Amino acid sequence: MRPRGTSLVFEILLGSKRVNVFDFSLVLTLEQAESLCTVVFEEKKKQLKSRVLQKYEERRQALQEIVTRTATQQQTLSNR
To answer: Which of 41, 42, 51, 74 is the most buried (most CB within 10 A)?
Structure first.
């Protein structure tokens, strides 16, 4: 059980370093954002209460849509 007032840490691997994804100075690659939407979320969702999980799921879905849209736009631009 986490001490009161502490938050979950969502981390991803950037090179050989694990970083907190709530460090808003980070710029993620599409692969890192995709990993956040899938692997990291699946690992962390077991630790979330249902009300919090619902909010994170909404954010995960929004991020997944952005990743998909950006990947499509990249592909379109690279084909020109």
So the answer is: 41
